Amino acid sequence: METAKPIMLIVRPSARAAEDVETCLNAGWRAEVLSPVEIEADAAGLELLSEQYARADAVFWVSPTAIETAVPHLDLSDGIKIHIAVGQGSRRALERCLGRTVIAPDDGNDSEAVLRLPVWDGLPEGARVLFVRGHGGRDFLMGRLREKGLQTELAEVYFRRHKPLNFQNFQAENITAAYITSAELARSLFAQLPPQFSRFFKSLLYFTHHPRIAEALKREGAEAVETVPSLEAALSHFRFRRYDFPQTPNR
Questions:
Q1: Which of 15, 177, 205, 217 has the smallest C-beta neighbourhood within 10 Å, fewest atoms?
Q2: Which residues form the Tetrapyrrole biosynthesis uroporphyrinogen III synthase domain (predicted)?
Q3: Residue 77: what pLDDT?
């Protein structure tokens, strides 16, 4: 008998999953991707982006998806603007494009953590901050920055489109856990589950990077949810705990 590789179910848009799949492979896991939401660029929003960017004193990047969608439409070579990212994943993605340091919180990956950064107090009153994001994001940080006397402008450069999932050939065997990256993905996934998979998905172990996503999963009926900083951290949990992975016969 040989041990079958455990599978991590990656629940996120397919365009964002390649790095996660590679991370799983490097850790000795297999990855299976489910994408109940996909990303669609907003052509009209991207057309306005260069002018908005030119007006900005600082740019806040809300996600790696925002970076990958917007950066090809911008000239980032001026080296003048202050760039702030929501978390370390976004910081790394943007630094690859900029070739210089990007500001991001070390103690979180949401608007609340970004608000705690000292960079905002160093901007002059009336400075313009451009938010680059998808349609329908949170407005918490924009409101708080306006209270500090800063101007904000919004560049919404992509849509999130719900995608029907096909469970006809879905195999639950060997799926050990799932990694999910937004509350919207959680809601869309559970809304589409066929009855025969409801019990499996409710009892599956979920990892996510934010407490709000964890709460969304619990509201959908997920019984085991852990909040971790990253997918790498989720995979590392299994190095220090004993899990009985499924066995498959030698072929």
A1: 15
A2: 21-233
A3: 82
153 backbone dihedrals φ, ψ, rounded to 5°: -135, 145
Q: Which two tokens stand for residue 49?
A: 């982006």
Average pLDDT score over residue span 157-164: 95
Check if the beta carbon of residue 75 is closer than 8 Å to that of residue 100.
no
pLDDT digits (tens, 9 = 90+) for 67-121: 999 999 999 887 778 999 998 889 998 999 888 889 999 988 899 999 999 999 9
- Model pTM score: 0.82
Q: Which runs of E-coded beta strand occur in the chain?
A: 2-3, 7-11, 30-34, 37-41, 58-61, 82-85, 128-133, 151-156, 158-162, 175-180, 205-208, 224-227, 247-248
Compute the distance between CA of residue 85 and CA of residue 65 in angstroms, rounded to an integer. 12
**b/e per residue 88-121 (b: at least 16 CB within 10 A):** bbbbebbeebbeeebbbbeebbbbebbeeeeebe
| Ranges of each domain in the chain | 7-35+163-209+229-239, 38-158
Residue with tokens 């999130």: 160
Mean pLDDT across the chain, nearest whole number? 90
Residue 238 or 12, more confident: 12
Side-chain-side CA neighbours of 197 within 13 Å: the count stands at 17
- Would you say how long the chain is, in residues? 251
Cross-strand bridge partners of residue 39: 160
